[in-house]
Amino acid sequence: MTREIFEIRDQDALGRIGELAVPRAGVTVETPALMPVVNPHLSTVDPARLESEFGAEVLITNSYIFYGSDDYRDEALDRGLHDVLGFDGAIMTDSGSFQLAEYGDIDVTTPEILQFQHDVGSDIGTPVDIPTPPDVERQQAEEELATTQERLEVAESVDMGDMLVNAPVQGSTYPDLREEAARHAYGTDLDVFPVGAVVPLMNDYRYAEMVDVVAAAKRGLGVDAPVHLFGAGHPMMFALAVAMGCDLFDSAAYALYARDDRYLTVRGTEQLDDLDYFPCSCPVCADYAPAELRSLADREREELLAEHNLHVTFQEIRTIKQALRSGNLLELVETRARAHPAMLDGYRALVEHAEQLEREEPVSKGAFFYLSGESARRPEVVRHHDRLARLHLDPDDQILSETYPLTAEVPERMDAEGHRSAALGVARLAAANPETAFTLAHRGWPESVLKLVPEGVELVDLREE
Ligand SMILES: [Zn+2]
Questions:
Q1: β-strands 248-251, 227-229: how paired?
Q2: Which among 2, 69, 124, 169 is least surrounded, fewest beta carbons within 10 Å?
């Protein structure tokens, strides 16, 4: 089965630039895409402005908010969501599963809420899944996953016309359950695959576990599955999530953080009270100094902060797309990882999945920049080492020095991991070619690393030449 709604245009690590066709809206959304969350009760930035000023192609709103209120429900059924919200792009609706998780039972079944989403003109609807939080007992995760899977099958059986339908992937923090959930979801004829209930991981800065959860889900999904990292709206982790293969993000954070005077950056979150300067050139930050913003009335300050938060969030999506197009997404991830120790853990978790990434990584990309010890464990290096172990040389073979990633840009002052990785590569090549004589010319590699090179390899320190 191929999913004709999603086409991949470009790829780097597991990240991709894709085109998600949303037939009911008559639009094609370029991914990675950010979907601002619009709460009709508390609209911070008008949806029409999200489209015209920020370039939002798709937004997300909660159908249960409309369903659960007599006034909103009738208005949405009469006029349709696009008219009520004043938005021409694609609209994704959530089912209220989050309310279920936060406040206990909601009083609606999957066929009812899907039919309602269809009737109010949603372009991408969602069944009522069970978002199992991290760290629960395995038995709970299994039982709730079984219920979610039944509901996906119910969702599959109702005819929703050309409305796309989400197939959420649950399974808490159990990678095998996430993988199984993903495989099951991918086996349905549903369309978009949100990886659910990761918000508690994000809120606690557990980025390494977030990476493991996404990696597990990706193993169960085909490459043509559009993946939504549900509830993850902080721009600091977008590059990491895209590199793991996430295509869609939703942001409630832009408005929620603004309400608490919190200012988003790609390096983390700042309190407005703590800032003397804005490290940003968006229209808000160009017009106001932090002290001026602090002096405004609550509502105005909140709106302006929300606008800054949106600008920085959309800007990061564009930065990621360009990095992906240029073939240096992992360098961007590496740069972002330096902002916070928890992000570094996330990046280290990513390189632990290097073999999974390597299976999909394009063979030839832009220049490889060696930026840290983690660079030595990137998928390109893993692949190169695999090749070395299988490479049988002709006596006058010259290919090695020209093969990616040996064209890597490396620092003059190489670190221990880089030296170690290079020495292990030499060892593999020598082991694969026992009849061949090797000379390793190096510039002052440390003794501890040279010990990893097999005995038969002649060593020449170029600094002594
Ligand atoms: Zn700004």
A1: parallel
A2: 2
CA of 315 to the centre of ligand 1 (A): 10
The distance from CA 6 to its chain's CA centroid, rounded to whole angstroms, is 17
Q: Quote the ligand 1 centre to 288 CA distance (angstroms).
A: 9
Q: Are 214 and 229 in contact (CB under 8 A)?
A: yes
Tell me the one-letter amino acid at 208: A
The residues near 152 (Cβ < 8 Å, ≥ 6 apart) are 127, 129, 167, 168, 184, 185, 188, 190
pTM above 0.85, yes or no: yes
Q: How many angstroms separate the CA atoms of 178 and 216, rounded?
A: 6
Enumerate helices (H) and strands (E) in the chain, giving the number of each.
21, 15
Q: What is the pLDDT of residues 288-335, one digit of tens each?
A: 999 999 999 999 999 999 999 999 999 999 999 999 999 999 999 999
pLDDT-above-90 percentage for the chain: 70
Sign of CA dihedral 41, 248, 136, 184: positive
Distance CA 389, CA 425 (A): 8
Q: Pick the catalytic residue from 94, 129, 247, 250.
A: 94
Q: Are 220 and 183 in contact (CB under 8 A)?
A: yes
Burial class (CB in 10 A: 0-12, 13-18, 19+), 53: middle
> Per-residue b/e over 321-355, b at no fewer than 16 CB within 10 Å?
bebbeebbbbbbbbbbbeebebbbbbbbbbbebbe
Distances (CA, A) of 385 to 91, 279, 358, 381, 422: 46, 41, 12, 6, 9
Among left, alpha and beta (phi > 0; psi -120 to 50; other), residue 234 is: beta
Structure tokens of 428?
A: 């593999």
pLDDT for res 144:
96
**Gap from CA of 10 to ligand 1 centroid (Å):** 29
User: Residue 27 belongs to what H/E stretch?
Assistant: strand 27-31
Pick from 45, 166, 159: nearest CA to 97: 166
Measured between alpha carbons, how far is 24 from 134 in angstroms, rounded to an integer? Answer: 34
State yes or no: pLDDT of 107 exceeds 90. no
For the chain, list the domains and their CATH numbers.
6-331 (3.20.20.105), 367-464 (no CATH)
